[in-house]
Write a structure and sequence with these properties.
seven-stranded mixed beta sheet; 276 residues; 13 helices; 2 domains; binds S-adenosylmethionine
């Protein structure tokens, strides 16, 4: 079958606008979308079989990122597996906020709950002077983050630490985190794709969804330099509570930022006074 015919066939089977169909074909054939048009060719039987298998899994509800084992975030490629959350476009707001604060400064950054490493690795890639540490609670998760650091050509440190039980080593200029923030009882009523495929440990923020914010704020003076910046991703309805928590603990410059859909998505604050 030629590529053009295959594209329309896969789109039809997926009921897709073309994005996923092209992604699958590109992944399997190693052709770019430009190649589809400029250098079309017949797909081999083996490629066709692989594509059929992927379409079958996709139509059973499995996210394409897990089927292909990869995704894109901040224009970079990241490997994902069942241990790691699929990076969300919303999280780019957090990364862009932190990057704008770093500029060209030489700073130490800790990414708590790094998962695939998408936040810390993007920061390391785009702010060459930063020294980034990626933290998560298991070796399996950190090995995905390590592969992603290598894939993106950045040198980062890795730290295994259960943030609810332990305090990370060292002090940082910036602590950034997209922690689990869904209320426990909401998790299993989420869109079934999320609750059946994504790791619950990456989602569960305790009874009120705020358990990780509470803990990170509690240990902030142990891990942040005075005047250092804390930057959290938050659920769209958690802004007020997280802002209040930070103010109560004496943080300064507490600010809420919105994502591309105008939902509250990021909170930043300083452990006074300003360091940079
Ligand atoms: C919402 S996911 C964020 C993943 C990634 N940073 C991103 O933005 O796509 C939360 C992350 O926190 C990690 N995590 C959960 N419990 C933890 C704990 N007790 N200590 C450290 N990390 C934890 C999970 O493994 C997961 O990678």
């Amino acid at each position: 079958m030629v590529i053009g015919q295959l594209r329309s066939e896969v789109r039809k089977q997926l009921g897709d606008n073309g994005h996923e169909a092209d992604w699958i074909i590109s992944h399997v054939t190693d052709m770019s979308q430009a190649d589809f048009v400029l250098h079309p060719r017949e797909v081999t039987d083996a490629e066709l079989e692989e594509i059929k298998e992927i379409v079958k899994k996709r139509n059973s509800g499995m996210p394409l990122q897990y089927i292909l084992g990869e995704t894109e975030f901040m224009g970079l490629k990241f490997l994902v597996n069942e241990l790691t959350l699929i990076p969300r476009a919303d999280t780019e707001t957090l990364v862009e906020t932190v990057i704008s604060k770093i500029g060209k400064k030489k700073l130490k950054v800790l990414d708590i709950g790094t998962g695939s490493g998408c936040i810390g690795i993007s920061i390391a890639k785009l702010c060459k002077n930063t020294e980034v540490t990626l933290l998560d609670y298991s070796d399996g998760i950190l090995s995905v983050a390590k592969k992603n650091a290598e894939l993106n050509g950045v040198d980062v440190k890795l730290e295994k630490c259960d943030i609810l039980e332990e305090i990370p080593e060292g002090k940082y200029d910036i602590v950034v985190s997209n922690p689990p923030y869904i209320e426990t009882e909401t998790i299993f009523s989420l869109d079934n794709i999320v609750s059946s495929y994504e790791p619950v440990e990456a989602l569960d923020g305790g009874f009120d969804g705020l358990m990780f914010y509470r803990r990170i704020i509690e240990i902030a003076s142990d891990i942040l330099e005075e005047g250092g910046l804390i930057a959290f991703e938050i659920g769209y309805n958690q802004g007020e509570e997280v802002v209040e928590m930070l103010k109560e603990e004496g943080f300064s410059g507490v600010k809420l930022k919105q994502d591309a859909c105008d939902n509250d998505r990021v909170v930043i604050a300083r452990l006074k006074p300003n360091l940079f």
